[in-house]
Design a protein that fits this description.
The chain is built from five helices and two strands. It is mostly helical and 146 residues long. A two-stranded antiparallel ribbon has the order 1-2. The radius of gyration is 18 Å and the shape is elongated. The mean pLDDT is 91.
């Protein structure tokens, strides 16, 4: 019982907001990093990179990130009225986040040309940002269990 009192519990609605916020913030950070790399390049280089990154972002969102977000949302909605604040992600997702951070750092420090890297960052950043919208849509219609 003492452990239960020490658990930092929050309402389900806040878990949804926290998860969506994290996905959205990380998506924006990746997006702005890509823009930073592209800002000094000429338009004939920038336009194809932005178009490719945007198209790939939508595809990644549509075929992968949206399904992951909906699965995560369904998991969060299955909890009781309040749950641990760290439950906004499944425990295995924390490992995946660590691997993605390591991969991002490795790519950022690689010799890959910045336009190619920008397209990758636009893709992942855009997909994360679009998927974050799934959480906010759910928050708008969320009704606590009675």
């Amino acid at each position: 019982m003492a452990i239960k009192r020490l658990t930092p519990a929050v309402p389900i609605k806040w878990l949804l907001i926290l998860a969506g916020g994290l996905w959205g913030v990380v998506g924006c950070l990746l997006f702005f990093q890509a823009i930073f790399w592209l800002k000094n390049l000429t338009w004939p280089v920038v336009i194809p990179v932005v178009c490719a990154g945007s198209l790939m972002a939508y595809a990644a969102y549509r075929f992968a990130f949206k399904k992951i977000a909906i699965t995560n949302i369904d998991r969060i909605l299955s909890y009781s009225d309040e749950s641990c604040i760290f439950a906004f992600q499944a425990w295995k997702s924390y490992l995946i986040i660590g691997i993605m951070i390591l991969l991002g750092s490795t790519l950022r420090h690689s010799s890959l040309p910045r336009p190619y890297l920008s397209a990758i960052y636009l893709t992942i950043g855009g997909a994360l940002f679009l998927a974050s919208c799934q959480y906010y849509i759910t928050v708008r219609s969320y009704k606590p269990k009675q």
